[in-house]
What we know:
globular; mainly beta; 7-stranded parallel β-sheet; 28 strands
Amino acid sequence: MSKSIRKLLCLLMAAVLFLPQIPVMCEGDVIEISTAKELTKLAKNCSVDTWSQGKTVYLTKNIDMSDEKFSGIPTFSGSFDGQGYKIKGINLSQNASKSGLFRYITASGTVKNLNAEGTVKPGGTAEKIGGIAGSNAGRILDCKFSGTVTGKNYVGGIAGENLAGGTISDCSSAGFVCGEHYTGGIAGQNLGTIINCGNNASVNTAAQDVKMDVKSIDFENLTSMTNTPDITDIGGIAGFSSGIIQSCTNAGVVGYRHLGYNVGGIAGRQSGYLDGCTNK
Length: 280
């Protein structure tokens, strides 16, 4: 069947649907991923910002990315359903900001039912670094990341930053998360919603001491990375939150002795809504 005929059939199906609010999924809108090379091809396609809009991606097997040259999926605006499978062997070490399995999930993007394992440790500015997403404006649902996430600012086990309107729900992290400013087991910075998530990762439990003159610190304005020379805003769930953190649990060790400011079991610093959370 030619492509033109397939497109015509899709248009006819859409025209005769009794319930027009239900979208028609035409061939090409559904993508199945079962190999490392297919995932790499998806990442290449997603370098075009609009390519993934309206597409649904299903992971159909566990994938090992250890031998594949892979730098993350640049921009994702569709639906990625991991179906409970795992992507392991992730090794993101390129100089980058917004680094993670997905570098940026847009407001229309959803990533769900996915397990990921590996190391996210980019060079360069290394801001907005996460196991699942560097930056999330969409939805991350029922995802798990296990491994090491290391960066400078906005570093999280699931997402480096969760933007306003972004949701992280029923997710968990394990391993080690390390950053300088805005570092959390789930999200480095949360401006959106984090609900029913659990952190088992160690957050900034080891670091080299930063030499500094204590007299030079402005303790009265010790509120953000812009006016401190040291490590700030470290939390088991979020380093900093002005959004919502609801029904979350931290079981990971947070912080290290004699170094760091604004450190908390749930949030290092927060000006939003926090309720029903437990720090172990």
